[in-house]
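Q: what does this look like with xylulose-1,5-bisphosphate bound?
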Amino acid sequence: MQAIIFDVDGTLADTERDGHRVAFNLAFEQAGLDWQWDVPLYGELLAVTGGKERIRHFIERYRPNGVPETDLDGFIRELHAAKTAHYVRLMAEPGIPARPGVLRLMQQARAAGIRLAIATTTTPANVTSLLAHSFGPEVEGWFEVIGAGDVVAAKKPASDIYQYVLEKMNLPPEQALAVEDSENGFLSATGAGLKTLVTVCDYTRQQNFPGALAVFEHLGEPGNPPAQLAGPPVALQDDGLQLEQIQQLFARGN
Ligand code: XBP
Ligand code: MG
């Protein structure tokens, strides 16, 4: 295991419900639209990855008021740019905490000489803001490659973003671990040939991850070990899933 490639939303932090969703709603309000994405509706809309793609899907599926008859692309692009500005600000204030054990695993990996990268559907500015505010000012620099947003044409569950990152790292897929939280992300990573560890979030707990190395609630931190939901049983200590245990799961494969 030469590298760990992290997903962002739902994996590094629980950003969907209290970050992205809120930012979308603020952008709708600012544009004078009466659209409101509540928590259950947003859960449905998450089936479509990518904010612009999600807005388009919402328009096509729900036919809401306020959609112009011409230049739908431009309308969506502007709405999404406003959403990104809100999201970037929300990450600074009030912010969303890093999920348990993520920063620790990054630090353990760095100490062991394991390379780090990111493969995400979200907009690059969102990654920068989350890392700076929830992880620390130096953390973005720990990632050799940050593959994000529109850098590839087809978003998750397509494998393009993982292939893009592997290519930039000049790394074969057998030598990297992906960490994901959702079915779409899992399909993207495994489709690129990566072994994948899953840490679910509230929106993805009921999803299926056939062939994952293991599925946990989260990575865990002292006093807060995670429940294991699938995979060969790992004997966790009080301080959560450790790098050596992940390396053992990786070596054992699936
Ligand atoms: C994350 C997403 C993103 C965000 C919105 O998926 O689906 O679309 O919800 O980000 P993953 P943008 O965690 O699998 O990468 O609005 O910037 O597109
Ligand atoms: Mg995710």
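The mean pLDDT is 97. The radius of gyration is 18 Å.
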